[in-house]
Structure formats: structure tokens, C-alpha cells
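Example record used in the benchmark description.
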Amino acid sequence: MLDGTAARDGGRACMTRRSLLRIGGLAGFGGLNLARVLRAEAEAPGRARAIRSCIVIFHYGGPSHLDTWDMKPNAPREARGEFQSIATSVPGMRICEHMPRCARVADRVAVIRGMHHPMTNHNSAAFTALCGRNPQKGDLELLGNDRNDPPCLGSVLSRQLPERPGMPTFVALPHVMYNVVTLPGQVAGFLGSAHNPFQLSSDPNADDFHLSELELPDTVSLERLDDRQSLMRAFDDPLGVVESPGAGALDVYNEKAFRLLRSREVRLAFDLRREDPRLRDRYGRTKLGQSALLARRLIEAGVRFVTVHDGQHNGQVANWDSHENVFGRLKNDLLPPADLATSAWIEDLESRGLLESTLVIVMGEFGRTPKINGNAGRDHWPYCYSVVLAGGGVRGGMTFGASDKLGAYPDLDGVTPGDLAATLFERFGIEPTTEIQDLTGRPYRLADGRPIRALFPS
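Model output (C-alpha cells):
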């Protein structure tokens, strides 16, 4: 995130010079050098081949697992709800009737049905889901960001993976998420701003969507840009004095900004106009659908980790937080674009030969209550919910773990967001037990959980 320096103007992503200087960086790799990563990507003895990229779709608000991927047709009506299940491409696996396209690609996904954690509020639960560990301040309703917080998953990868020339490592789109305050779990925390995501704050579905800030004006040549870079360096250190704390980070931002301005590949990656209109239709002409398509373009161009935020603000009709009319909201508003985007991702990545090397993770911060409330909705429920994985070497057509007969608690092989984080890092060839340090020098493991290796063929 860019600390509020990104603004919105119609469909254009408007970033100030200051914000452009704060996107990603070239900080040290924490003991993981380029040769080691490339070697891990090429061969991982005893494990599935390491991935090269990951896309996360985060359904902010908490999707109902009971009405999507873990239906309970034999449960009492107050638990099972109104929807029927349908057959999928996997014998015996049934999912919600309003997800027909996902049913078609079920043979390429793995459904984790026993994800759980203790955070009941959106802010704290989002932090847990996006960082892979519980917040230090506990289950607070309006938990905000803290400079001392552990980093989100993408920021860890930004630090541990070598940057591909001319491309940011970590991108988040199409907006920053809020619940009164900025939703925690979207930033680098104690790793510092150099590892925050390259944050888009505009709608890729808008007719005039483009990143004008990454387009050089006609009056500015590359030679002039080089001159400006020299001037910037002179301005930052006019007397050649010893840098104060933090000045080195500013150098990182400056160098990154100039590289992006010079990069034709970056500008082309963000240009959705280059896509076939029929493929854009396949993803869905929605904010979510076009964000998903843009995410595919970015990983194809070399970005390592992309998070797509589905939902920007909290509220009954703003995201997946359906305390009222859960079945109407799912049927009419939420599931159709999600069904399109998720299935399109899988089919598109596969057709381009990218699915095996790209892990797709579909998740929210928690699930919904087994009992339908008096407003025909479901309330927050972090004690059992579903997460869906595809690609990245995952064993398709499987479920991992199981919930009980009401979908209330894990009944078999429960896992935590920490386990998912460990799985993600290991899939990138990074040892999850690697330690990093916070601002006080206290050691932190990259992930507290254990990799879910059963999801991947050995």
C-alpha cells in the first residue's frame, strides 16, 4: 500500500510522485540469493517442482463455505440453506448450483475444508488470513496497521525472492480495503515500505483504465529521464554526507521508480486493451473479472505475487459480509462474477502453459455460521471454512480434510492460515522456518505452521 498517496480519478490509477517512489524495492534477500532460488525453482528433491508465481483472490467479508464449496444437504434446514448442490467434473464432489463454471474445472482444484482460526472480527481475521498468523493485539474489531506488525504474505515474498528486472515482485489490486480504518494485513509491517505492494487504486473494468504515471510524456525522452535521475541523486545527497537512517530506503524507492518509468514491459503488462475482447468477456466485464485478467497478465510478465481484493469497504451490500439475505446476495451479486473469474483463471492459465507454475488461492478471512439467523443471513464464523487452491502443482480433484455434519468445526485434518503460509513459501522454494527480525531484533519465523504437502504429488 502507498500510505494514502494513491488517488482515484475515474478509471485511471493516479499516483503521486511520492507514491511512485514508495513501491517495492531491492532490499536484501535475507540469505536467499538468486542462484539458490533459481535452483529451487528448477529442482526440489522429494517435493513438487517449485512455483514461479502466485495469485490470491481475497473475498473480503467472509464467503459462506456452507453455500459454496462445503454444502451440507443432509443437515437441518436452518443449517443447509436454500441452495442445491450440483455434480462437478470430479465424481462424488458436489458444490453450489450457482457455481457451474467452477464445477467444470473442479478436477483442477483442491478444496481445503477444515481451515480455522480464532479471530471473529473482520480486521483481525483479515490480518490472520493475509499474514498467516494471528495479530499481536488480539481479536479487535477495528484493528489497524502497526509499523511493528509482521508482514503480509506478499511482502515476505518481496523480501525473500530476487526481483525480476523491471517488474515489481508484489502487486495488489484494484483497491485498498477498509473497515473504518485501513484493513490490516495488506502491508509490509516491520519489513518496511520497500516491501509494500505496488498498489493499484482504480477499476480495470473502466473504459479509460490505464496507468498514465507509467507513461513518459511526449516531451520527456529516456535521455532526459536519465538526466533527471542524476539530478535526483544529487538532490538526495548534495554534499555527499553520510546518509541518515532511512535514507537508503529512499534510494531504493527512487531507483525502483525510475526503472518502472523506463520499462516498456511494465506498461504493456498493465494494458488490458491488448487482450482479445472475447477473453475479457470470459473473465466477466466486472471489477473482479477484469482484475483477475490483469493479474494473469502481470504474472505472465514476471510479477511473482498478485493479490486481487474482491470488496473494498465493509457493509452488508459492499462485500461478502452477508448478515442479511445471504442467499439472494450470493445468487444475484457475489457468486456469478466469482464463478466466472475463478474458472477463467484456471482455464486461461492452463491454455498458456502457466497453471503448473502458478498457484491460485481463493479465500476469505473466515466462513459463516452453520445456523441461519433471523434476517436470513449468516454471521461470522472463523472456526471452520473453506479455501480453494488450483495450479502450482496442486493435486487436482481433491478435498483435504473435512468439516463436521453442520460445517461448524473441522472433523478431519484441520489446518490454519499459518499452515497455508508455510505451504505457500515452501512451494516457492523458501524454507518456512527461516527467521527474520522485527524492528527490535526479535526473531520471527516466516511461517508458524507446517506445509500441507498432501496437496501436492511427491
